[in-house]
Design brief:
The complex is a heterodimer of chains A (627) and B (301). Chain A is an alpha+beta fold. Helices cover 22% and strands 33% of the residues of chain A. Chain A contains 12 helices and 39 strands. In chain A, the strands form 9 sheets. In chain A, strands 17-16-18-19-26-25-24-21-22 form a 9-stranded mixed sheet. A 7-stranded mixed sheet of chain A has the order 6-5-4-7-8-38-37, sandwiched between helices. In chain A, helix 5 links the parallel strand 4 and strand 5. In chain A, helix 1 packs antiparallel against helix 4, helix 4 runs antiparallel to helix 12 and helix 5 packs antiparallel against helix 6. By secondary structure, chain B is of the alpha/beta class. Chain B folds into 2 domains: 242 residues, Rossmann fold, CATH 3.40.50; 41 residues, no CATH class. Chain B is built from 10 helices and 14 strands. Chain B has a 6-stranded mixed sheet with strand order 8-7-6-9-10-13, sandwiched between helices. Chain B has a two-stranded antiparallel ribbon with strand order 1-14. Chain B has a two-stranded antiparallel sheet with strand order 2-5. In chain B, helix 4 links the parallel strand 6 and strand 7. In chain B, helix 4 runs antiparallel to helix 5. Chain B starts with a helix and ends with a strand. Classes of the chains: A alpha+beta (627), B alpha/beta (301). At the A-B interface, strand 2, helix 2 and helix 12 of A face strand 11, strand 12 and helix 9 of B. Strand 2 of chain A pairs parallel with strand 11 of chain B, so a sheet runs across the interface.
């Protein structure tokens, strides 16, 4: 490690100025002439050993030495010496700044947020930036964002730094690391510094191409927050709302949980939670009408993080699930009707006419029905159009070889001894991979081909039975009503009729609206984003970086209101990790009171030069007055 | 020349001082005298009336000098010895170089030479005066002479000595010895500020049978120079320059060197049976004469 480095080493050429300085000094030195009787005594004075001692020689040419010293100090200051922070100091310094929700946590003592502390340290590093060094600023929460390119423009960097605000999003390091890794192809990046409070996911799926220096800033703080808000249907016309409150402190923290329905407080409850003792509260909410629910936590004492104190949830009006089925599929219809809160409709077998209304689940064996705009479909004995070249159905007996037991549709369904009169088989050269390439997932494999396929498109889920269930022993199995109930259950969830979960910040949940229509999304801070729904009427991809209520407007009319919450137990805990596990290595996080930065010395030299100049002036004036 | 000066016998000092000088005598340390008879007592074996010592009688001794009282008491003859009365040669060397023009040093030197010369003349000694001036020229010289009648010539010679020469004192001594003959006392009135070696002229004087009396005359500017800062000193005789930085800081060393020079000169003179005295030209001449020289034993009143 070099003790001292210079930013501008070429400044050493200025030391050649010593030569003219010395010449000018002796040329310009005008001594008053004094006639003396003889030089004998003065000559012997000069020959005296005391006069020729190094100290006396120094005194004799003090002015020249002062000028040389002054020149040396000025030149050294021009060369901009600095004490490097460590051996890894490199020319290009990417700084990854955590601006996740936990960085907004306030320190009780200083009143500053963790992000403020990080900002101070980064500001110091920017201000101490040496000439050839360049910094690129990145922020990361759930995604990464580049604020500046590599630059040594302090004003630009400080401006970008000042604009960083904590988000209401959880921290995720992967994206920003990938973004930084992309820069390694253009810049020789040796070391990347991450400035965080340590509230990160312990496991990071990333192979490090550079050294990572994770600096942990921030002290533990007391915090309470809502980490879960969901509602489950309870009876025909009621919701049960579940709220989980979690704390970060060892001791019990008190708060009042208030529940607001359409802006009116309806219920409240006292909670006491600690780090190891979360509290789960249940509130009954009437479900006859759509309710916009807000759970608000009002801590009694100090609460470090405000972002996790409020969560929103939209509860739809309670109604029966509407299942539409083909007239020919009696087995399915009867099995679905056995599930409570289900209202059935039948597609005429002769005319194929579909009853009016909005339907939640379609069970059909008619290929044309596959196009109906229903979120959940069970299509029986139908090969998807785009798979007809890959899968054919033979008139042979078939059997189940294996199935995905964890798929929602097949939970608790036993298919081992089901027999089929049809044998779906892969066409020659086709395989499961070809199906997967087209977006299909094989849930049940037969001995020659797929028996059950699943395809998800946006909020729509479609299951394709490649054999007709009526030509199998499946309807006679115990698992069949379970299968139908699973389909109904999935449809209920899809239609938010059984269970509703509050949306975490990040991206708003997809909204089913009018197709191909432009909507404006008003965020809690009053800003608008314009989005367009797709052909299926799904409005997706609306960014929701803040906790609060998002309104979706069609013109000036509000067509939907969706609330979000932080809902991240890790962020609420404000816990920090000691070590991050990357794909190939583990990197320890370092608690740092002070960010190691290069220490520039030019200002010390400049002040020393100024002091030297004043001393020289005083000394010169003193000599002149003495004359 | 004012009226009072015209009334004085010399411009070097007034008549009252001259009268006092006439009553004073030189006090040489040794009896380095000329063979010719003079008024100076010079060791035993002389024919003066001043008793010096006894010695055993030897065959051939003049019976007139036997002490018969001792013989009657001890029954052994002893010869009485009397001190010689011989002539002392007083050589006065006045440094007339330019350096002596600073602070009335030359005037002091001339006065001292005049006073000591008058004492010698009135004591029937041979007195010669040399004023060494320039390198190229011969020294101004007052040939040896004795007797009261030489006083006028001595004073006139010294009155006419002008400074401004460029010869160092060691060369001045060497040049003087080319002309001088005779044993006695050599009185050097100079500032002795020279870059040369002074031991050589001292040896030459000693070898010539002269007792060396060194009278160093320094001005106040040399004894306590008031200098400060960076200066360029110019030698008054040679024109050489010497750059001194922070002269004020070097004054203590200057004084040390001055005292060391005095000690060296004193040592040189004493080792050659002589004496040395350093005086300031600012000291009144009467003080110099009646106080310093008397107390140092150079002269007696």
């Amino acid at each position: 490690m070099n003790f001292l480095n210079f930013v501008n080493l070429y400044g050493a050429w200025f030391f050649l100025a010593v030569i003219p300085l010395v010449i000018l000094y002796f040329l310009k030195l005008r001594r008053p002439k004094v006639d003396v009787p003889s030089l004998a005594l003065w000559q012997s004075v000069l020959n005296d050993q005391r006069v020729n001692s190094p100290f006396q020689k120094f005194r004799r040419n003090l002015l020249l030495l002062l000028q040389l010293l002054l020149l040396a100090l000025v030149i050294l200051a021009l060369m901009q010496p600095f004490v490097p922070a460590d051996a890894g100091t490199s020319e290009y310094l990417p700084l990854l700044i955590d601006n996740s929700a936990s960085m907004g946590a306030i320190d009780e003592g200083s009143g500053k947020s963790r992000l403020d502390s990080v900002r101070e340290r980064v500001r110091e590093q920017i201000e101490n930036l040496s000439g050839s060094q360049q910094i690129a600023l990145f922020t990361f929460s759930s995604t990464g964002r580049r604020l500046t390119e590599f630059t040594n423009d302090r004003r630009q960097l400080l401006k970008a730094l000042d604009e960083i605000r904590p988000t209401d999003l959880p921290a995720k390091l992967d994206d920003v690391l990938r973004m930084t890794a992309a820069y390694t192809t253009s810049f020789p990046i040796d070391r990347v510094t991450v400035l965080t409070d340590g509230n990160l996911q312990e496991k990071v799926e990333f192979e490090l191409p550079f050294n990572l220096n994770i600096v942990r800033i921030g002290a533990p703080a007391d915090n309470l927050g809502i980490t879960e808000l969901s509602a489950r249907r309870s009876g025909a016309e009621e919701w049960e709302v579940f709220v989980r409150v979690t704390g970060s402190a060892e001791q019990l923290l008190e708060a009042e949980l208030q529940l607001f329905e359409n802006g009116q407080q309806t219920q409240s409850s006292k909670v006491e939670v600690s780090k190891d003792d979360a509290e789960r509260l249940v509130f009954p909410v009437a479900g006859q009408q759509t309710v916009l629910l807000e759970a608000r936590l009002v801590p009694t004492g100090f609460d470090a993080l405000a972002a996790d104190n409020s969560v929103w949830l939209s509860l739809p009006a309670v109604r029966p699930l509407k299942v539409l089925s083909s007239e020919s599929l009696n087995s399915w219809r009867r099995a679905a009707a056995a599930v409570p809160n289900v209202e059935s409709g039948v597609i005429s077998g002769e005319t194929g006419s579909v009853p009016d209304g909005s339907w939640d689940l379609l069970i059909s064996d008619k290929p044309d029905d596959a196009k109906l705009p229903i979120p959940v479909k069970v299509l029986v004995g139908i090969i998807p159009e785009d798979l007809k070249s890959l899968v054919t159905v033979k008139e042979e007996l078939g059997a189940v070889v294996d199935w995905n037991r964890t798929a929602p549709l097949l939970r608790h369904v036993q298919l081992a001894e089901v027999e089929f009169a049809e044998l779906p088989a892969y066409a020659e050269g086709a395989s499961t991979k070809d199906l997967e390439d087209r977006g299909y997932e094989v849930l049940v494999d037969g001995k020659a081909g797929p028996l059950l396929l699943q395809k998800r498109e946006g909020l729509q889920t479609t299951w394709w039975f490649t054999f007709h269930t009526d030509r199998s022993t499946l309807p006679f199995r115990v698992g069949f009503p379970i299968l139908a109930a699973n389909a109904v259950d999935t449809a209920m969830k899809q239609s938010s009729l059984a269970e509703v979960n509050a949306a975490p910040t990040g991206v708003l949940p997809a909204q089913n609206l009018d197709p191909e229509t432009e909507y404006r999304v008003r965020s809690p801070d009053g800003t608008f984003t314009t989005l367009r729904s797709n052909g299926a009427g799904m409005l997706v991809g609306a960014s929701a970086g803040r906790v609060g209520l998002y309104e979706i407007l069609d013109g000036e009319e509000t067509v939907a209101a969706v609330g979000t919450g932080l809902l991240n137990i890790h962020e609420t805990s404000l816990a920090d990790v000691e070590e991050l596990k990357f794909t190939e290595a583990a990197v320890a996080t370092q608690a740092a009171e002070k960010l190691a930065t290069d220490q520039p010395l030019w200002w010390i030299l400049a002040f020393a030069g100024l002091g030297m100049l004043l001393f020289e002036w005083w000394y010169f004036q003193r000599a002149r007055n003495a004359e | 020349m004012d009226a009072s000066a015209t009334r004085n016998f010399t411009t070097l000092f007034d008549n009252a001082l001259l009268a006092q000088i006439e009553r004073m005598r030189l006090r040489p340390l040794r009896r380095l005298t000329n063979r010719s008879r003079g008024e100076h007592l010079s060791g035993k074996g002389g024919s003066s009336t001043d008793f010096a010592d006894y010695r055993d009688y030897a065959a051939g001794d003049d019976l007139r000098y036997v002490d018969w009282n001792i013989f009657a008491r001890l029954q052994r003859p002893y010869i009485k010895q009397f001190q010689h009365e011989e002539e002392l040669h007083v050589v006065l060397l006045v440094d007339a170089s330019t350096s002596m023009l600073f602070g009335d040093k030359l005037l002091t030197a001339k006065r001292a030479a005049a006073a000591l010369g008058i004492m010698g003349l009135l004591n029937s000694e041979k007195v010669s005066v040399y004023a060494v001036h320039a390198q190229e020229s011969q020294p101004w010289m007052l040939p040896p002479g004795s007797g009261r009648t030489r006083i006028r010539a001595l004073l006139q010679f010294l009155e006419n000595v002008a400074g401004g020469g460029d010869i160092p004192v060691e060369d001045a001594v060497a040049r003087m010895l080319r002309f001088h003959r005779g044993r006695g006392v050599a009185i050097l009135a100079s500032d002795f500020l020279t870059l040369g070696d002074l031991s050589r002229p001292m040896n030459m004087l000693y070898s010539a049978g002269l007792e060396v009396w060194g009278l160093q005359i320094l001005s106040d500017a040399e004894i306590a120079p008031n200098v400060e800062g960076d200066l360029r000193f110019v030698d008054s005789e040679t024109g050489y320059t010497l750059d001194i930085t922070n002269a004020g800081e070097l004054l203590s060393i200057y004084h040390d060197q001055r005292l060391r020079l005095q000690a060296t000169l004193d040592n040189m003179c004493r080792r050659r049976q002589g004496r040395f005295l350093s005086v300031s030209s600012a000291v009144p001449f009467s003080d110099l004469l009646f106080d310093c020289l008397c107390r140092q034993g150079w002269v007696q009143r």
